[in-house]
Amino acid sequence: MLLSVKQLGEIFLDRQGVKDEIWIHTVCDQASVLQSRGLFIPLSEASGELSEAIANGAVAVIWDKNKPLPPYTPNHFPVFYTSHLDIAVSEILKHYIEKLNGDIDKNMSITNFKISEKKLLKKNKQTYDIAVMLNVISSKQENNGERRG
Description:
The protein is α/β, with parallel strands linked by helices and 149 residues long.
């Protein structure tokens, strides 16, 4: 399952730009990383500039609403505002896991989470490795006696 701009609009009501069904292939906190159809989340000053993230494939951004958006940001570019970027990552991950709803398919397209902010990873007791998340979901279903299909 791929995350979409439309789904992000369900989480972040304060937003601007297009609201179309744009599929997110990557969630990344580093502008310098290639992020095919990426959602950029600048968690710290070390994350880099939005312009670099766009050049590396970002198609949307989660932005700190207390900071001015760079003037070069295209009008149509999806921007989702939040006061807490670290909490936003957790909300996105939680929403993504809920939407998966146990749908596990070897050929399924998935959103790749590339989060490198060490403080955030230590703060949250959740993993951002999609393979581990899918395994946890699968284990919970097996333990509950759920069967799909």
